Amino acid sequence: MSIGTTWRRRRQAARTRRAIDRALARTGSPAMRDELLTMANSSAFFTREV
């Protein structure tokens, strides 16, 4: 894996985490929070190819 690929993956993961954090802050539904947290904890969610 090249330096550029590693950097892009880290940048995308950080962007995704921030988006999930914002969504968690906005939602009032416990079911939606659970779903967002399940997605966030899924290793496939963060390692998927761009």
Rounded to the nearest angstrom, the distance between the terminal CA atoms is 14 Å
In sequence order, what are the helices and strands, one letter per element?
HHH
- The amount of beta strand, in percent, is under 5%
Report the strand count.
0
Count of individual helical segments: 3
Q: What characteristic shape results from the CA principal axes?
A: elongated
Q: For the CA atoms, what is the radius of gyration?
A: 13 Å
Largest sheet composition = none
Write down the overall mean pLDDT. Answer: 79
The helix fraction, in percent, is over 70%
Low-confidence stretches: none
Structural class: mainly alpha
Per-chain topology:
Blueprint: H1 3-26, H2 30-41, H3 43-47
Helix pairs in contact: 1-2
